[in-house]
Design goal:
The chain is mostly beta strands. It has two domains: 136 residues, Sandwich (Immunoglobulin-like), CATH 2.60.40; 132 residues, Copper amine oxidase-like, N-terminal domain (Copper Amine Oxidase, Chain A, domain 1), CATH 3.30.457. The chain is 12% helix and 43% strand. The chain is built from three helices and 27 strands. The strands form six sheets. It has a six-stranded mixed beta sheet with strand order 2-13-12-5-9-8, with no helix packed on it. A hairpin with a 5-residue loop joins strand 14 and strand 15. It is globular and about 95 Å long.
């Protein structure tokens, strides 16, 4: 009887080791972070351009994969934004995915469930999730909680907003002993006008006019690129991917028609509106592109004009 019992014990031990190894393989670590912390009022509701980023540490078959589900939970007194009918909403297309796709479903006013519908096991998956929220009755730090559920996404709590504003001291930058003088170049585009000016001089007529749509000002990307000092050969249109690539010096920006994604020098970010085609030209509220090239954008509601200010060394 001794040998059969010994063999059974050995087999049980081997089985436990295999189960333990399998469980270890099913766990994948992700790096989760919030791109910035915003200060808001106690009656805030809207889109503060704050994103939760979830990215795999490495790509392997048992990492993020189709069928996995996780939840994002807001604290009591804070809810996902509501539509005009008062219903809390969250749209799947608001989430930007690299090497994966997801669907989002609102379980209640404070909880959104996200399901991975497809993922490439040979590539690192990354999700950019906008945090669009409303404050009903809350003071202090607002954190979003990730509940992993059956997924391989790391759980945790992440600070993304504060009510009321908490002053964080910012160290003074060291002064430049020999600051370079700069000169400003200004381009002015006017809604409904085919002409724009550059440092006060009217430029040749554009083949499309700026317009306002749903409260946003759309400008032609090509002429904005000219005003930023980008040469014609550095404005590239790819008809197959329906994307535009702008290059100037060591700065490179790529955008896609119908997508809010913007890649600046290899870094993915989310614009709050997507480019579109109008009269054969690519149009876009230009703040994101202009800022990528170091320019500032100003809106004058009286004359309905957009001024792009570019600083450059003399």
């Amino acid at each position: 009887m001794t040998r059969p019992i010994k063999n059974i014990m050995i087999m049980l031990l081997i089985s436990l080791l295999m189960l333990s190894a399998g469980a270890g393989m099913a766990q994948a670590a992700t790096r989760n972070s919030v791109n910035r912390v915003v200060s808001v009022g106690d009656d805030y509701r809207g889109y503060p351009r704050t994103d939760l980023t979830i990215i795999e540490e490495e790509a392997f078959p048992n990492g993020i994969q189709a069928g996995q589900t996780f939840e994002l939970l807001l604290p009591m007194g804070v809810e996902w934004i509501r539509d005009s009918n008062g219903t809390a909403t969250y749209e799947s297309e608001d989430i930007i995915c690299q090497n994966c796709s997801v669907e989002a479903e609102l379980r209640n006013a404070r909880t959104v469930e996200i399901t991975v519908t497809a993922a490439d096991p040979e590539s690192v998956s990354q999700l950019e999730i906008p945090l669009v929220f409303a404050v009903n009755d809350f003071l202090g730090d607002i954190e979003v909680t990730i509940d992993s559920l059956d997924s391989t996404i790391s759980g945790g709590q992440y600070l993304f907003a504060q009510v009321p504003y908490k002053l964080v001291p910012v160290p003074e930058p060291e002064p430049d002993p020999q600051p370079q003088p700069v000169q400003q170049q200004q381009a002015v585009f006017t809604i409904g006008s085919p002409f724009y000016s550059l440092d006060g001089e009217v430029q040749p007529e554009m083949d499309v006019q700026p317009y306002i749509k749903e409260g946003r000002t759309y400008l032609p990307v090509r002429y904005v690129a000219y005003s930023l000092g980008i040469d014609e050969q550095n404005i590239q249109w790819d008809g197959e991917t329906r994307s535009v690539v702008l290059s100037k010096g060591d700065q490179k920006v790529q955008i896609w028609i119908g997508s809010r994604a913007l890649i600046h020098n290899g870094t993915l970010s989310d614009m709050d509106v997507a480019p579109e085609i109008w009269q054969g030209r690519t149009m876009l509220p230009i703040a994101h592109v202009a800022e990528a090239f170091g320019a500032a954008v100003k809106w004058d509601p009286v004359v309905r004009s957009v001024t792009i200010v570019v600083n450059s060394p003399e």
